[in-house]
């Protein structure tokens, strides 16, 4: 009798391993973060505010507006690169970003796009136009609607236009209405109309911006991205970007997205880049509001976000969990690990692997984290001096 083939046992083991892999993994399309602040990726460990914030605008003034004022083009780049890296490691292949850096406006959107492209993540960014920095450099927490556009707002408008004219995938950004004059809101709307894109705007996140609905109503369009809408007092055309983790963290209330007719999408508002975790939190927050709600609702919000970035539908995320595509499993299973991410290159359209065996392929994960940490230290030192 002939001896068995020497590679037969190995072949059998290979078949067993392939079967085991198939039984312990599953694939989904890429996820989309429909509202991010990539400039906040270096915020972790930043200096504590000089005083305890007493209101939402006060918290913006003492914390987040100090952060964006301390940014340089270098820190913007490394913050975006770290944010993009953490996004793709969590299966997010497309990001809709809202950026502000009043002391480094020109070139900021290019820095964000370059950083994301190097990691292998698609980004649609914008500059958040605002009048809160007066021409003399003073910070104004609230801006009179009747005031004139500031030089800072004009620079932000020009940065959006520059990025759009270069042919980039972009929107026109607008900060909360309570930091913008009527002239600035009108100018942002006009720029968006001319370039046939939407306006990405914070809307009634806190009670302090409750007048946003009436001020935005003459301008809002179906392609606008309305972020938060927690205290929105009327219906507005546009897509609602729901950010439950951020709203809970800031104590501003629940947006009740299921009570509105608008299409709803999910964002992180800069608190991390893990949209699978955001989806799970969105579900339990929804259930607290409506105990009859089903997982299909929040899973649908993630699908809606993919319609804003159709390229994500062709991306493939391999999860180390066999039922990642099942809404009932997705909302109740923590720690589903991403093993592999395959995308189409944003420039050439060529398929490529950007994550393999749980780490990034196009950039060195350790190097990005190390250089981002070094840049964060410099950023935090600048914050201390503001």
> Which class do the helix and strand fractions yield?
alpha/beta
- The backbone outline, from C-alpha atoms, is globular
**N-to-C series of helices and strands:** HEEHHEHEEHEHEHEEHEHHEHEEEH
Strand order in the sheet with the most strands: 5-6-7-8-9-10
What is the CA–CA distance across the termini?
A: 85 Å
* Individual helix count: 12
CATH fold label? TIM Barrel
* Portion in strands: 15-25%
Q: What is the CA-based Rg, rounded?
A: 22 Å
Question: What's the pLDDT, averaged over the residues?
Answer: 92
CATH top level label: Alpha Beta
Residue share in helices?
40-55%
CATH architecture: Alpha-Beta Barrel
Number of domains: 1
The number of strands is: 14
Could you give me the name of the CATH homologous superfamily? Answer: Metal-dependent hydrolases
Q: Major sheet, described briefly?
A: 6 strands, parallel
Outline the low-pLDDT stretches: 1-21
Provide a descriptive summary of the structure in words.
By secondary structure, this protein is of the alpha/beta class. The chain has one domain: Alpha-Beta Barrel (TIM Barrel). Helices cover about 40% and strands about 15% of the residues. It contains twelve helices and 14 strands. It has helices at about 10-25, 55-70, 75-90, 110-120, 150-165, 180-195, 210-215, 245-250, 275-290, 295-310, 325-330, 365-385, and strands spanning about 25-30, 30-35, 90-95, 120-125, 130, 170-175, 200-205, 225-230, 240, 265, 315-320, 340-345, 350-355, 360. The strands form three sheets. Strands 5-6-7-8-9-10 form a six-stranded parallel sheet. It has a five-stranded antiparallel sheet with strand order 1-11-12-13-14. A hairpin with a 2-residue loop joins β13 (about 350-355) and β14. α2 (about 55-70) crosses α12 (about 365-385). It is globular and about 60 Å long. The N and C termini lie far apart (about 85 Å). Residues about 1-20 have low confidence and may be disordered.
């Amino acid at each position: 009798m002939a001896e068995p083939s020497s590679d037969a046992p190995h072949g059998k083991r290979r078949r067993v391993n392939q079967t085991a892999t198939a039984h312990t993994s599953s694939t989904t399309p890429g996820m989309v973060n429909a509202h991010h602040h990539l400039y906040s990726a270096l915020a972790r460990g930043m200096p504590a505010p000089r005083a305890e914030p007493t209101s939402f605008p006060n918290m913006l003034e003492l914390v987040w507006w100090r952060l964006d004022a301390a940014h340089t083009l270098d820190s913007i780049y490394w913050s975006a690169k770290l944010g993009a890296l953490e996004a793709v490691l969590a299966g997010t292949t497309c990001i809709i970003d809202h950026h502000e850096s009043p002391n480094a406006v020109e070139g900021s959107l290019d820095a964000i796009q370059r950083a994301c492209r190097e990691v292998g993540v698609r980004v649609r960014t914008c500059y958040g136009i605002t009048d809160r920095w007066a021409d003399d450099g003073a910070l104004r927490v609230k801006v009179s609607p009747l005031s004139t556009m500031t030089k800072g707002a004009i620079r932000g408008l020009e940065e959006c236009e520059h990025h759009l004219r270069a042919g980039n995938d972009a929107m026109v950004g607008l900060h909360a209405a309570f930091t913008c004059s009527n002239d600035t809101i009108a100018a942002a709307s006009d720029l968006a109309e001319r370039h046939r894109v939407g306006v990405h705007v914070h809307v009634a996140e806190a009670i302090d911006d409750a007048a946003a609905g009436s001020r935005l109503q003459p301008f809002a369009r179906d392609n606008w991205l309305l972020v938060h809408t927690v205290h929105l007092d009327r219906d507005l055309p546009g897509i609602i970007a729901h950010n439950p983790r951020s709203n809970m963290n800031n104590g501003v209330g629940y947006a009740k997205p299921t009570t509105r007719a608008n299409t709803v999408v999910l964002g992180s508002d800069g608190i991390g880049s893990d949209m699978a975790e955001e989806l799970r939190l969105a579900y339990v927050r929804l259930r607290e509001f409506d105990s009859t709600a089903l997982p299909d609702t929040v899973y649908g919000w993630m699908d809606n976000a993919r319609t804003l970035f159709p390229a994500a539908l062709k991306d493939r995320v391999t999860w180390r969990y066999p039922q990642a595509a099942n809404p009932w499993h997705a909302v109740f299973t923590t720690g589903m690990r991403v093993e592999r991410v395959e995308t189409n290159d944003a420039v050439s359209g060529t398929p490529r692997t950007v994550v393999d065996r749980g780490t990034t392929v196009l950039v060195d994960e350790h190097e990005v984290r190390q250089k981002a940490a070094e840049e964060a230290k410099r950023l935090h030192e600048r914050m201390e001096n503001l």
